[in-house]
Amino acid sequence: MKPSFVDLFLKYGVHTDKETIHHYGFWYDRWLGDHENMSRILELGCDCFGCGGLLAFSEYFPNAAVVGLDIHYHKIADEARQNNRISLVTGNVYQYETTTMIRNQFPAPFQLIVDDCLHDPEDQLKAFRLWSPLLATDGLYLIEDIYDLSQLSQILSLWTLDWDITLGDSRELFSGTYKESLMLCLRRRCPEQSPV
Ligand SMILES: C[S@@+](CC[C@H](N)C(=O)[O-])C[C@H]1O[C@@H](n2cnc3c(N)ncnc32)[C@H](O)[C@@H]1O
Residues with beta carbon inside 6 Å of ligand 1? Predict the structure, then answer.
């Protein structure tokens, strides 16, 4: 049986905080569980613990090309380095030139983009504006670690009129409240679903 994201984030738990510090696996399973054939994935901010998120994506989607983007790599797990479906790119997520570099290297649109880089709402908006154009029409854009949902909603609102947004709230999985347990899933609305 195919492992769940919860299983995979725990399996690679030394190299990612997605199910150790956070509990995001439940939401990944809910949002990506019926996507059998995701083939191009980009994670913004992927190192920190050793690129375990990339390893989990690559194992869950065995045909996917998985691209990680980080400003520097200090902790890359050997498995990530040796995985020929994982590409590790060095660059600043918040510079337009980096989007051009990625487009040149990987011309086809991504079906999944995960922002796990800086968690300030202004940075999350900046990343969304820069990187969402690289998303396939039916792709998903996930933002992890929402510190201030009302502030982020306010600043995102103008830019996401054509997007359906779902909140993943893992606070109840913690014994106390933990501010970094919210994530968002954004999906571009099909034209026929747009309000008239
Ligand atoms: C929360 S960690 C990523 C955790 C990883 N995604 C995981 O699943 O364990 C954030 C990462 O963003 C990177 N980062 C910070 N500022 C950046 C920038 N301006 N451009 C690219 N990467 C950046 C850091 O180097 C760090 O590796």
Answer: 16-18, 43, 45-49, 52-53, 70-72, 92-94, 116-118
Residue 39: which domain range?
5-193
Distance from the alpha carbon of residue 123 to the mean position of ligand 1, in angstroms: 12
Of 28, 46, 67, 95, which is best to mutate to test ligand 1, by the most ligand atoms within 8 angstroms of its C-beta? 46
Look up the CATH number of the domain holding residue 155: 3.40.50.150
Count of domains observed in the chain: 1
pLDDT band at 176 (very low <50, low <70, confident <90, very high): low
Q: What is the pLDDT of residues 109-157, one digit of tens each?
A: 999 999 999 999 999 999 999 999 999 998 999 999 998 888 888 888 8
Q: What is the Å distance from ligand 1's center to 45 Cα? A: 3
Please give the Cα distance from 9 to 16 (Å, whole number).
7
- pTM of model > 0.90: yes
Q: What is the pLDDT of residue 192?
A: 62
Centre of ligand 1 to C-alpha 48, Å, is 6
The H-or-E segment that residue 113 falls in is: strand 110-115
Provide the token pair at 4: 């769940």
Q: What three-state secondary structure class fits 194?
A: coil
Closest CA to 38 of 18, 56, 50: 56
Helix (H) or strand (E) holding 136: strand 135-143
